[in-house]
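Collaborator request log, item 7. Partner lab (contact: R.S.) asked for a structural prediction of CSC1-like protein erd4 to inform their binding assays.
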Amino acid sequence: MDFSSFLTSLGTSFIIFVVLMIVFAFLSSRPGNNVVYYPNRILKGLEPLEGGYKSRNPFTWIKEALTSSERDVVAMSGVDTAVYFVFLGTVLGILVFSGMILLPVLLPVAVTDEGWKSQTTSNGTFSELDKLSMANVKQKSNRLWAFFICCYWVSIVSFILLWRAYKHVAWLRGEALKAPDVKPEQFAIVVRDIPAVAEGQTRKDQVDSYFKTIYPDTFYRSMIVTDHKKADKIWEELEGYKKKLARCEAVFEKSKTDANPEGTRPTNRTGLLGICGSKVDSIEYYNEKINETITKLEAEQKVTLRDKQQNAAIIFFSSRVVAASAAQSLHAQMVDTWSVLAAPEPCQLLWPNLKIKFFQREVRQYVVYFIVALTILFYMIPIAFISAFTTLQNLVKLLPFIKPVVRIKVLRTVLEAYLPQIALIVFLALLPKLLLILSKMEGIPTESHAIRAASGKYFYFTVLNVFIGVTLGGTLFGTLKTLENSPNKLVSLLASSLPGNATFFLTYVALKFFVGYGLELSRLVPLIIFHLKRKYLCKTDAELREAWAPGDLGYGTRVPGDMLIVTIVFCYSVIAPLIVPFGALYFGLGWLILRNQALKVYVPSYESYGRMWPHIHNRILASLILYQVTMLGYFGVQKFYYAPFLIPLPLLSILFGFVCAKKFYPAFERPTLEVAANSMNVPPNMDLVFRAFIPPSLSSEKIDDENFEDARSHV
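Returned to partner:
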């Protein structure tokens, strides 16, 4: 990509961002769009706009985001969201403090040398942007000392800010868990790998007697985990009939007019997809189906509670200190029996995974890792092809009929600027769901843990396939003839390609923060979908609420996407310092726009109290180590004799990660007793705590009836 194409890409992205900002300012001020732009505030019973519409201008949201405190974020979106902003702020700080030295020192050093005369790419060209990078510095030059020292500077800044961030997140987590409010999960533990029941004993009696012996004063009761898949299916069917009934009643009410005060009762056919079978009155039909399904559900509840008990249970204690102590204690001599973990929020439990035995979980984990490794390897092939063949030169060779289009200068410039990046973004969008399914197959017991696991897999995938894959793919395809003649030049060609690939990644980062965050702020897609649903599909208030339900921030894909940018910017920060302000813009703009979205739009689907942070911290360190190793190799290619003095950097990073894990991680892995010992406002209502963990499909208004007494005794 030449300099004019780069500027075209940057300018176009900026124009798109400005247009999307204007669109947001206009659309968000329309009262009819409040549920799209302010759903979080509406759900919390707050006014969509503070001070009303008249007091606002197009930049009010920026002021509100900048003046909001961490306490505001926790109150509106939870601790996990606040921790995500610690991540954004930390990386932004690293880039700003690094850039304060890298830009004024390295750019003049690079641009005033004449390395371009001896260092050209395989086709004999040298981009104007390469003159601003390390590629313009001659081999063995003393100027390389400036780049060498800056490698240490970036690493030291990262260590200092990461330490401060870890300490702050640990405090944030502790303060949230100390809160005097009653949280059901703080009074419970999850027990897995329960041994087989002795003859003449029930599972309920086995579990109760075991924990009563260990905790005679604070044990409250147990809930045996059951296989309730069939009950879930019936319950979902029942909920579907209730929604259809509400919809039919709403249609019937709207049909009543002055000309037809009786209204027209809706009808439907009972056959396949409602297009065949006998025609019936919809309201009467769905009332009958609801009554039938309720009876069916109650019968299945009794069968499930009696006959489908699993080798797992939830144990409740009347003291959260005892629950915290039990969650981190070894209860049995053998590790594969009576294994325990701290209970998550009830909504997070992955019930089917609780019954999976200890050694099965271990085997599943390694099998999934193997599958993920294969996925990474097989995905690397198409990504390498995408990076190579979506360049305009290669496309013209493969598709000669597009030559007339390419000759149009404006179209050529736009295609060169955007084609590879858009192809890569679309390709990556297909992966996250597969990784989440694989993570759940490991036997992970909670939703947040599965998302963290999928996020880690996605991070390594993006780094290996996008960062390394694009670099290797572009170089190998672009220099194939040279390698045929001189295979021993592979290492030098790969190293010399790094500054050239920085241009691709500069454009990629710019596209992500200008267009990506512009679409995020404007919410055009959710807005269009909501209005289409409201006009053509929604008949009831419940359907309307579902139409504008905002969802959460989506940490499973958002964090790995951000970490890819961290990796790119770190690895190119010294080689091509011009990427640093682009990275700072990405995280600065992200902090600002997502702050607005967290305060007004997104609603968290769960709360893990910052459990994502240790994983984020480790991924940043992995990116830092990759950067340090990359620089070590690049200095070697530049024949800088003092390159081995960079070897301590990755070793220091590993040591830093080890110290952080020993000092901070245990408080994230297990609940601490000093936090649990804080006093509460009111004593917990243990019956409500217990009922919070009952799955919706097993919860019934008749649960206290005599018919259910026997079944409930097993729970």
